[in-house]
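Minutes, project check-in
Item: structure for the 347-residue chain
Input as provided by the requester:
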Amino acid sequence: MNAALERFGWNTRWEEAFAPLAADGLEPARVVVQQRGVLTVAAAGGERPAEVGGRLFRDAGSGGLPVAGDWVGLRGGRIEAVVPRRTSFVRRAAGEDAAAQVVAANVDVALVVAALPDLNARRLERYVTAAWDSGATPVVVLAKADLADDLGDAVLAAERAAPGVDVIATSVVSGAGLDELGSLLAPDRTGALLGISGAGKSSLLNRLLGEERLATAAIRADGRGRHTTTHRELVPLPAGGLVLDTPGMRELGLWADDESLDAAFEDVAGLAAACRFTDCAHETEPGCAVLGALDDGGLAAERLAAYRKLGRELAHLERRNDPRLQAEQRRYWKKIHVEYRRTTRNR
């Protein structure tokens, strides 16, 4: 195998997946930089710019166009095919229309970065849900651990917001947690740094690289992140492995399913399995184990509220993308409106 490709994660599994494209005369490459529609790929001969071929642009749709982390097939300077992704971190694109936006592809470890001292558990739950849905292994990375008033409490809060997910407290000042973070990335494994702007993603990557390669900025006084990374870049680490640095996201609209929600809220899902009714909505039903845990203090009210909120968001997304559910919803509201008009006429 080519050493230049191996540096970016090429292995026998990808070689096998690429075989049909190789038979068509295409050259393998990986998208390493994505910036406002301009792509840079790493191929056997080194890094070079590439454009999306016309047929791929027409046929792929927004979710199928190449993004950072994708393995692609080149013909000259044009990308003519995208190798089927093993994982993909997807969010709902901004705007009225429900559409998927792939943020990162072929990521093995989704590193969800949250900055201390002010941990936002609700935001963390949202990112972890999307990370589970991506197919990658989520890991919560608490950045700026040196600023925490009580690091033990912060780790416990993160573990409660992401049960079953490893939590690593890190500091670029003291170096705490960096060795543990680096150990997650074997020579052919890819990690992606995900989180809001200013959370410390680029600072962490600079420390892993051992050089100030990426621009950084602190969180503003009002707690909002500053946009430092403006593009997606896949960076090889000196000890092996790769890290994809991504721009911070002001909002993370979910594009996931119920299984991913249950994975992120395994505490609630585990309780739900003991409910008397299999279709329990955990609202007023008798024999509801979730409500029972809420009453006896085994489940925090804000945790259940977050589960319900994200569940409603995913249900709304499903209705918007399923014509059958859309029709059922229209019939339901039509029935309500007819009943309302009948009632008002009889007054």
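Outcome recorded: The two ends are 81 Å apart (CA to CA).
No further action items on this chain.
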